[in-house]
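Each record in this resource describes a single protein on a pair of labelled lines. With that in mind, the following record should read easily:

===
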Amino acid sequence: MGKFVLVRIGQRCIALLPDKDVELGAVGVNDDLFISREAGPSGYVYSVELRRRPN
């Protein structure tokens, strides 16, 4: 269905994507997450990018 879930345990963050889970490590409140998808041979392939902003 193309949905995803972000799990936070303290500052630790895990992205649960339709095709995989991605451990992001410590994510601050000022950091940005970008989730994208591309067509793959057997469906969509998802990726997540963490961009840290200076404090």
Notes: The first strand starts at residue 5 and ends at 9. The chain has one domain: 5-51. Strands lie at 5-9, 12-16, 21-26, 32-40, 43-51. The chain is about 0% helix and 60% strand.
